[in-house]
Specification:
single chain; mainly beta; OB fold (Dihydrolipoamide Acetyltransferase, E2P); nine-stranded mixed sheet; 9 strands; Enc34_ssDNA-bd; DUF2815 family protein; NA-bd_OB-fold
Length: about 230
């Protein structure tokens, strides 16, 4: 529970993955939403138990209000085991190992701040998958097109520190580490520049072997020439 709201939680430090916090994203053609996947270390039992309690409260609210006493089996778990598999049967990414995995989303853009100043929102360039943060989430029951379940709403995000980006793209510092100082370039330029030496490229002063006379000279065209094709008209 957070701020006396039984379905709301403030996590401990988590790692952010699949981040769409600055711009909404449409998943499989659905309505664009702001979202992120939250990786909770399994050592953080306090956050895990808080999430379970909030999830159970949201479920009971659904039973009493939305679902008219029915207790549906949740089609998908809300909290996944990062050491297990996705609903598709595929294993989670290596970054999920040793973590609980929760995806939260919202139609409204979350505020993303830094713990050093929670009054100022971060620039988009400071927000990325792989950073560490604390996140507020709110669980809620839903019923849509015959499907009943509990969703996880995304609140706000407070960045705590930087981390290795999870974008899969290397940065320039890593790409060029250890590349050393480039060798001196060959002198380029023109007359009057240091290191410039003119190299003759076929003129009357060169030996005939390097300056042969043309063996064929085309005859001058006669008559009218088509200006487009270059052929006699």
């Amino acid at each position: 529970m957070y701020q006396n709201i039984a379905t709301k939680c403030l996590t401990g430090e988590v790692r952010i993955s699949f981040e769409h916090l600055a711009r909404p994203y449409s998943n499989n053609g659905g309505e664009p939403k702001y979202s992120c996947t939250i990786l909770i270390p399994k050592t953080d039992t306090a956050t895990y138990n808080d999430l379970l309690s909030a999830l159970q409260t949201a479920y009971e609210q659904g039973v009493n209000d939305k679902w008219k006493g029915s207790r549906p089996q949740l089609r998908y778990p809300v909290i996944y085991d990062g050491d297990g598999v996705r609903p598709s049967g595929e294993a989670f990414g290596v970054e999920c190992k040793g973590h609980w995995v929760v995806t939260a989303s919202s139609k409204q853009q979350p505020q993303v701040v830094h713990q050093s100043n929670v009054s100022v929102q971060l620039a988009e360039t400071d927000i990325y998958s792989g950073m560490y943060a604390r996140v507020t989430v709110n669980f809620f029951p839903y019923e849509s097109s015959g499907n009943r379940g509990v969703g996880c709403g995304l609140g706000n995000v407070m960045k705590t520190r930087d981390g290795e980006p999870l974008s899969g793209r290397a940065n320039a510092e890593n790409d060029f580490a250890g590349a050393g100082t480039p060798a001196a370039a060959m002198p380029m330029g023109g007359p009057g520049m240091p290191g410039y030496a003119a190299t003759p490229m076929g003129n009357a002063a060169m030996p005939a072997a390097y300056n042969p006379a043309p063996r064929y000279a085309p005859a001058a065209p006669t008559g009218n020439i088509n200006p487009i094709t270059g052929l006699p008209m």
